[in-house]
Structure formats: C-alpha cells, structure tokens
Specification:
Layout (H helix, E strand, L loop, with lengths): L2 E3 L4 E7 L3 H15 L5 E8 L5 H16 L4 E4 L3 H10 L6 E3 L2 H10 L2
Parallel strand pairs: 2-3, 3-4, 4-5
Antiparallel strand pairs: 1-2
Helix pairs in contact: 1-2
Length: 112
Amino acid sequence: MSIQKWSEQIWVTQLADEPAFSDDMASLRDETAKAEPMPDLVLDLSDVGHVSSSQLAQLLRLRKIVVDHGTRLRLAGPPDSVWAVFLATGLDKVFDFSENVSTALAELQMQR
C-alpha cells in the first residue's frame, strides 16, 4: 500500500482485496495516528472487488477515528459489487462517497 500524501491536509490510499486490504488499513491507522494534525483521507476502492463484514468493521473504525479528530473520510470509486454492499447495509448513509479520487479531492478542497 502506498499512502499518497497529496497535501499536508489530504492523504490518498488505494486499497485492494484481501489479504492486502486488512494490512493496508492497519498501516493507514498507524500512519494517521502519528500525523499531527490528522489529515482528511480519501480511500480509493476502485480495485476492491468485494467487501466482507470484517472489512466494513475496519472502515467503520477508521471513520470513528477520523470523526473524533474532526477530519473527513471519503470513499472513492467503489465498483458496483462493493457499492451494492454499502446500499444493502445502509452504510451508504454513513460514509461519504465520490465517483473517483479526482472528484473526492476536489470536493474536499471545496469544503474547506
């Protein structure tokens, strides 16, 4: 996984299917814990083919950390199979989504 520090305030991370997904989420949590102040995060889901309940729990934990620090999290480019899981679980109303990373970055910048 590479955390792309797009700016001091925004980091972008591209996620993939398991087993990389869990490892990458742990690395992202560790890196953001060291950041001062905590940046806004964009998670690129375009290479994730499916999500499990464990992965949803990891995303929810990261969202709680982000919200507790007063920053923002955007999920970008989820494929239809992943989007369907968010719709079925009602998590489409919990997370903020963008069509792709470029759109997510623009939306975060416009909201500042």
